[in-house]
Amino acid sequence: MTTRVWNYLPEYEKEKADILDAVEKVFGSGQLVLGESVKGFEAEFAAYHGAGYCTSVDNGTNALKLALEALGIGPGDEVITVSNTAAPTVLAITSTGAVPVFVDVREADFLIDTALVEAAITPRTKALLPVHLYGQSVDMAPLKAIAAKHGLKILEDCAQAHGARHHGELVGTMGDAAAFSFYPTKVLGAYGDGGAVVTSDEAIDLSMRQLRYYGMDKVYYVVRTPGHNSRLDEVQAEILRRKLGRLDEYVAGRNAVARRYEEKLGDLTGPGALRLPATNEGNTHSYYVYVVRHPERDRIIEALKTYDISLNISYPWPCHTMSGFAYLGYGKGALPVTEKLAGEIFSLPMYPSLDEAEQDRVINALREVLTVL
Ligand SMILES: *Cc1c(COP(=O)(O)O)cnc(C)c1O
């Protein structure tokens, strides 16, 4: 079988009885939408974060979009974020009518360069949207200081960083609100789509509950527009409840895979060689993906195909260079570090149930390919 960066089947084999029990519980419960499993998951996900509130939604993109709306962001407002992210971060902003404003990232950790943020602020700026990319927290202290000084909201994009920590604090607890995705590949993944917004602000949570439920505050009565139908499915909620109890194990498992890459590939590093990802001081990485760098990235990926290894690039095109975002007016050269990284990065297989033999097969193939490059 082809080796890929992600595969849920080994996990399903291990957890099958629990997952199928979750499905059966919901089907037999008599309530298929916004029932006990959604309520239970929301309470447990909020408690995991030590946060007051959690509203679950249908996916991570809508978690970001509805959270922006709940924060009062709309047409004409500017939201500062990065181009070096999954496109849904940016689509969530544009779908509210707001304008994404991109700042470049740091070469060392792929994360927002907090030193560039203040220069991007205009009178229209309403929020900062840091992305804890690949599973590592952004430096929050400088962002919080800037937000306080300029009266901006902070929405954390935690879609890749469930269970990651920053100086001991969980990501998702450091801004006004935080959006999560439970897309199957994520660190906490459902067996389908899912998302959630965590906050400690009751008013934001109340808005979230109305926004995901047609803009209604009671059945059939709309109190605000736009209203959406953006509910988390009851089956996915019950599966996520089961898996939430194992989230810390998943993060530990991903860290074990990362340590093995470091042990077995660490000697190849240096200028012009393979560069492994760095974890900043004070951070606990959750390794949503394990992203390495090499100037000959495309040749490496091509060569690995002959070993039946198919790797991913997260992400090959920075958002500001995509034709769909051309109207934002950035173009090539606008964000040099982001653009340079996009040409060199690729992801090695990463998931907690990746077995050592399969990981070694990738490591050995990669070592062979690098010697003949
Ligand atoms: C996955 C992801 C999203 C979108 O989540 P979906 O559940 O796929 O809609 C948003 N932001 C980032 C950084 C992501 O990785």
UniProtKB/TrEMBL annotation:
<dbReference type="Pfam" id="PF01041">
    <property type="entry name" value="DegT_DnrJ_EryC1"/>
</dbReference>
<keyword id="KW-0808">Transferase</keyword>
<dbReference type="InterPro" id="IPR000653">
    <property type="entry name" value="DegT/StrS_aminotransferase"/>
</dbReference>
<protein>
    <submittedName>
        <fullName>Aminotransferase</fullName>
    </submittedName>
</protein>
<feature type="modified residue" description="N6-(pyridoxal phosphate)lysine">
    <location>
        <position position="186"/>
    </location>
</feature>
<dbReference type="GO" id="GO:0030170">
    <property type="term" value="F:pyridoxal phosphate binding"/>
</dbReference>
<dbReference type="InterPro" id="IPR015422">
    <property type="entry name" value="PyrdxlP-dep_Trfase_small"/>
</dbReference>
<feature type="active site" description="Proton acceptor">
    <location>
        <position position="186"/>
    </location>
</feature>
<keyword id="KW-0663">Pyridoxal phosphate</keyword>
<keyword id="KW-0032">Aminotransferase</keyword>
<dbReference type="GO" id="GO:0000271">
    <property type="term" value="P:polysaccharide biosynthetic process"/>
</dbReference>
<dbReference type="GO" id="GO:0008483">
    <property type="term" value="F:transaminase activity"/>
</dbReference>
<dbReference type="InterPro" id="IPR015421">
    <property type="entry name" value="PyrdxlP-dep_Trfase_major"/>
</dbReference>
<comment type="similarity">
    <text>Belongs to the DegT/DnrJ/EryC1 family.</text>
</comment>
<dbReference type="InterPro" id="IPR015424">
    <property type="entry name" value="PyrdxlP-dep_Trfase"/>
</dbReference>
